[in-house]
Amino acid sequence: MSAEMLPGYSPSFKKPSEILRLSRRRSRSEAGARTALFSPGEATKRVSGVRPFLPGPQRQGSGAVKRRNPFASLDNTAAVKKRAESVTAECGPPESWAAEQRETPGQHHSVEDVIWGEILHADRAAATPESPEKPAAAPRQSSATYPADWSLKTRLLFTSSQPFSWTDHLKAQEEAQGLVLHCRASAVALPHSIAEPKSSVDLRCAFQQALVYWLHPSFPWLQLFPRIGAERKMMGKNSPWAQDEALQQVLLSDWALSFTSLYNLLRAKLCPYFYVCTFQFTVLFRAAGVAGSDVITAVMSPTTRGIREAMKNEGIEFSLPLLTNDASKKTKVSEPTPKSGDKTPEVGDTSEGEEAPLDSDEDESFSWLEEMGVEDQIKKPDAISIKLRMEKNEVKLDHRPESVVLVKGANTFTLLNFLINCKSVVAAAGPQAGLPPTLLSPVAFRGATLHTLKTRTVNVRTQVRSGYKDQCSLEVTGPVMPHAVHSLTMLLKAAQAGSFSSSLYTHEPTTVFNTAIQCPNSKETDSTELANSGLHPLTLQQFTQPSALGKSSLRHVELDDYKYSWKC
C-alpha cells in the first residue's frame, strides 16, 4: 500500500529535522535580503520613501556594511525627495545645472542651486545627525597682569605640568624667616624664572610669607570664616559665651578695641584694607588711594531695609551704586534731581519733608468716595500700610547684590561706631549667638592672632590623546584675601616656568565688592603713600587701580608664556 493510501496521512507533513533545516535557510535568506536592501545606492530602488544611506568610514578588517541610523526621521526625507522631484521636473537634473555653471563661471548661483543645496544639506543631516555646532569662543585677552579682585576666596586650586614639591616640608628656618619677612613687611626680589625651585630658599620663604593673615577673635575649635551660612558647621561646637552675658560683654569689648585699632591703621595708611564678617553681611574697608578712591571707603553687602534705615537714622550718608537712577527714584532712597552744579545727594540726605506730598496725593485719591457718599462704608488704608506699599520695591532689594551699600570719607568713622554699637552684628540665637564678627586683615593689629592658609599638593597622571602626562596641583584653603592671590601668582610665575592654571572659588556675598567707585574728583593715586602698608610694591600697584570687574569676580586665571588670561 502506498503512503497516500494510509489513514491520517498528510502530504504537508515534515519531520522535525526538516523543519529546523528550512528555518535556518529562511533566516540566512532574510539576512541577505536585509543586507541588500540597505546597501548604499539600493535602498531607494527597493523601498519607496527611504533615502539612500551614506555610511561613514568602515573599520579596518571588517567587511560588514554599516546599518542605517534607526533614530533618523524619514518624514523629512520623504518631503525633501518630493521637493527634489518637483524641481527636477521643472528645471531638469542637477547635472545639467552644474554643466551650465561650468560654462558660465562669472554668473551668480541661481535659485535652483540654492534649492538643491538645501536638499542635499537636509538629506545629509538626516543621514548622519550631528550635534549643533557650537559658536566659536571669543579669544581670551592676555596681559602682563590681571585686574584686582576684591572678593574673598575660600579655595584656590593651581595646576601645572611642573611639580609643586618646592612648597612641601618647609624647614624650620625657612618658616621662621617667612614670618619675619611678613612682620617686617620686607619684599623678596625673585628672578624672572627659577630653574630649581626646591633649592631656592628665597622662594620657599616668600611662599610662607604669602600664606600669613591676621584674624580676631580666634577660637581654634571654631571655623570663623565664612560666617554667612556657617550655622551647620558650628552646630554642636562648644560655645561657653552663648548663655553667659558677662562673657559676651567681655568678648564684644575686646572686639571693639581690635576694630578701632584696625581702623586707625587704615586711616594712617599702614593697612591697605580689612574685612568685617558678620553672620548676615560683610564689610570691606579700604584706605585712601586704594581702588581708585582718594578717600577711605567702605562697602557692605548684602543689606536689608532695616539695616539701611538704621544707618540713615544714625546720620550715615551712603549710596547704592548698583541701582540705576530710575530704581533709586522708585525706592525713595535719594532726593529729587538736583540742579546743575549741585553735588549728587547721598542716601542719608533724604529729608522727612518728602512724605508730605505723598499724604496729600493719598487724600486726593480717595476724594471720589466722598463725592459718591460712601466714604464711611469704605475703610481707607492707614498711613503705615500706605508707606509699606510705597516701599515694597526697596524691600525687594534685601539680600540681593543690588543692596550693596557704599560709604565714603568721614562717614566710614560713623559706620565704625554704628557697627560697634549695633546689636544686629551679633546673632541673638543659634550656633553663632554672642560671637563677635570676624576681623580679617593682611597686617597685624591689636588683639589679632597670626594664622596661615592651609596647603596641599597632589601629583596625578591624566590621560591625553597621546597617552598619559603628569599633572601637578597645589590647593590653598582658608580665608584667601586679595593680596594673597596676587602674591601666590607672582611666586608661581617664577617657579612654574611661566605656565600654570588656577581655579578660584569665591565667597559669593563678597562678589559685589568689585563694584567700581565713582569719584569725579579723584586723581591718579601714588602707591608710594602706601609703601608702609605691608604689601609687595607690585601688589600695591594693582590695588591702586579702579575696580574693573563690576558685579563679577575672577573664576579662572591662566598663565601661558608669562602672559595672563582670565575668566569671570
What topology does this entry show?
Layout: H1 16-37, H2 43-46, H3 74-91, H4 94-103, H5 111-127, E1 142-143, E2 153-160, H6 172-183, H7 201-210, E3 212-216, H8 231-234, H9 245-267, E4 273-277, E5 282-286, E6 297-301, H10 305-313, H11 325-330, H12 355-365, H13 367-372, H14 383-390, H15 392-395, E7 405-408, H16 411-421, E8 438-441, E9 449-452, E10 454-464, E11 467-480, H17 482-495, E12 499-506, H18 537-543, E13 556-560, E14 563-567
Antiparallel strand pairs: 1-14, 2-11, 2-12, 3-8, 3-9, 4-5, 4-8, 5-6, 6-7, 10-11, 12-13, 13-14
Molecular structure report:
The chain has 18 helices and 14 strands. It has 568 residues and is an alpha+beta fold. It has 4 domains: 72-131; 142-204 and 453-515 and 550-568, no CATH class; 212-332 and 399-452, no CATH class; 351-390. The strands form 2 sheets. The protein has a 7-stranded antiparallel sheet with strand order 1-14-13-12-2-11-10, covered by helices on one side. α3 runs antiparallel to α5 (111-127) and α7 (201-210) packs antiparallel against α17. The longest helix has 23 residues, at 245-267. 28% of the residues are buried.
Distance between the termini: 99 Å
| General form | extended
* Number of E-state strands: 14
Radius of gyration using CA atoms only: 38 Å
Portion of residues in helices? 25-40%
Class derived from helix and strand content: alpha+beta
> How many distinct domains?
4
Mean pLDDT: 78
Report low-confidence residues grouped into runs of 5 or more.
38-47, 53-62, 96-139, 325-362
Major sheet summary line: 7 strands, antiparallel
Q: Order of strands across the biggest sheet?
A: 1-14-13-12-2-11-10
- Tally the helices: 18
Approximately what portion of the residues adopt beta-strand conformation? Answer: 5-15%
